[in-house]
């Protein structure tokens, strides 16, 4: 492997959603530098952070219909039984809910937790409370995606946070997605909630760090974790 190949492999791709923001930060940096030299370095740091925020690395996704993988990078903030948002049509009975909180330094590209078909997309405007708070699930702006999977319907909810002001969803009704496939993105700092039907057993604990597309959040049945994966 050449030095060029090593450098190329070490550089993490940037998601196209980030290009306009990086350009804005860069222009602002040049303007600040024209005003005062110290401001240029502050702006440059902010521009580098913006590029880092919109990184979109490949992940090695475990391949099996009996596992649920994390849809987001971040901290597992809750594992509990909760009633899913009414608009998603998942019923009025509690389901296993696993929440992953993303801070402004986490990768914010969201990935499908299981393979399935999109059976509903439900956007609801709301507040912008700290996404770590439990009431953010009810009060904050959110976008819920219902996936029909081998184990029934599951819900994946993108929740805006204190700083986030834009939820982006790439999929549409009827789309077929693979586990680990990119389905959305949130800007800047937010949370993902996954609602799972009966039969799912959590494999993570509160406070654990999760990696989108790789960390197994839950399993169905007596399942032994896989070793085979697919790079996406």
UniProtKB/TrEMBL annotation:
<keyword id="KW-0594">Phospholipid biosynthesis</keyword>
<keyword id="KW-0456">Lyase</keyword>
<keyword id="KW-0472">Membrane</keyword>
<keyword id="KW-0865">Zymogen</keyword>
<protein>
    <recommendedName>
        <fullName>Phosphatidylserine decarboxylase proenzyme</fullName>
        <ecNumber>4.1.1.65</ecNumber>
    </recommendedName>
</protein>
<feature type="transmembrane region" description="Helical">
    <location>
        <begin position="21"/>
        <end position="54"/>
    </location>
</feature>
<feature type="site" description="Cleavage (non-hydrolytic); by autocatalysis">
    <location>
        <begin position="189"/>
        <end position="190"/>
    </location>
</feature>
<comment type="pathway">
    <text>Phospholipid metabolism; phosphatidylethanolamine biosynthesis; phosphatidylethanolamine from CDP-diacylglycerol: step 2/2.</text>
</comment>
<dbReference type="GO" id="GO:0004609">
    <property type="term" value="F:phosphatidylserine decarboxylase activity"/>
</dbReference>
<feature type="active site" description="Schiff-base intermediate with substrate; via pyruvic acid">
    <location>
        <position position="190"/>
    </location>
</feature>
<dbReference type="GO" id="GO:0006646">
    <property type="term" value="P:phosphatidylethanolamine biosynthetic process"/>
</dbReference>
<comment type="similarity">
    <text>Belongs to the phosphatidylserine decarboxylase family. PSD-A subfamily.</text>
</comment>
<keyword id="KW-1003">Cell membrane</keyword>
<keyword id="KW-0444">Lipid biosynthesis</keyword>
<keyword id="KW-1208">Phospholipid metabolism</keyword>
<dbReference type="InterPro" id="IPR003817">
    <property type="entry name" value="PS_Dcarbxylase"/>
</dbReference>
<dbReference type="GO" id="GO:0005886">
    <property type="term" value="C:plasma membrane"/>
</dbReference>
<comment type="subunit">
    <text>Heterodimer of a large membrane-associated beta subunit and a small pyruvoyl-containing alpha subunit.</text>
</comment>
<keyword id="KW-0210">Decarboxylase</keyword>
<keyword id="KW-0443">Lipid metabolism</keyword>
<comment type="function">
    <text>Catalyzes the formation of phosphatidylethanolamine (PtdEtn) from phosphatidylserine (PtdSer).</text>
</comment>
<feature type="modified residue" description="Pyruvic acid (Ser); by autocatalysis">
    <location>
        <position position="190"/>
    </location>
</feature>
<dbReference type="InterPro" id="IPR033175">
    <property type="entry name" value="PSD-A"/>
</dbReference>
<keyword id="KW-1133">Transmembrane helix</keyword>
<keyword id="KW-0812">Transmembrane</keyword>
<dbReference type="Pfam" id="PF02666">
    <property type="entry name" value="PS_Dcarbxylase"/>
</dbReference>
<keyword id="KW-0670">Pyruvate</keyword>
């Amino acid at each position: 492997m050449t030095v060029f190949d090593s450098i190329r492999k070490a550089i993490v791709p940037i998601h196209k959603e980030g290009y306009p923001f990086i350009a804005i930060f860069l222009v602002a940096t040049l303007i600040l530098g024209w005003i005062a030299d110290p401001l240029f370095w502050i702006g440059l740091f902010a521009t580098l952070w913006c590029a880092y925020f919109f990184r979109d690395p490949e992940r090695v996704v475990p391949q099996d219909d009996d596992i649920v993988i994390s849809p987001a990078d971040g901290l597992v903030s809750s594992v509990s039984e909760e009633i899913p948002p009414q608009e998603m049509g998942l019923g009025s009975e509690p389901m296993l809910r696993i929440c992953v909180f993303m801070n402004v330094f986490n990768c914010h590209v969201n990935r499908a937790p299981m393979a399935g078909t999109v059976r509903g997309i439900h956007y609801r405007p709301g507040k912008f409370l700290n996404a770590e708070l439990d009431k953010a699930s009810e009060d904050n702006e959110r976008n819920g995606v219902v996936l029909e999977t081998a184990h029934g319907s599951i819900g994946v909810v993108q929740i805006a946070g204190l700083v986030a002001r834009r939820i982006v969803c790439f999929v549409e009704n009827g789309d077929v997605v693979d586990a680990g496939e990119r389905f959305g993105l949130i800007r800047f700092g937010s949370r993902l909630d996954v609602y799972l039907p009966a039969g799912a057993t959590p494999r993570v604990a509160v406070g654990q760090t999760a990696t989108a597309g790789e960390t197994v959040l839950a399993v169905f049945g007596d399942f032994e974790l896989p070793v085979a994966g697919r790079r996406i």
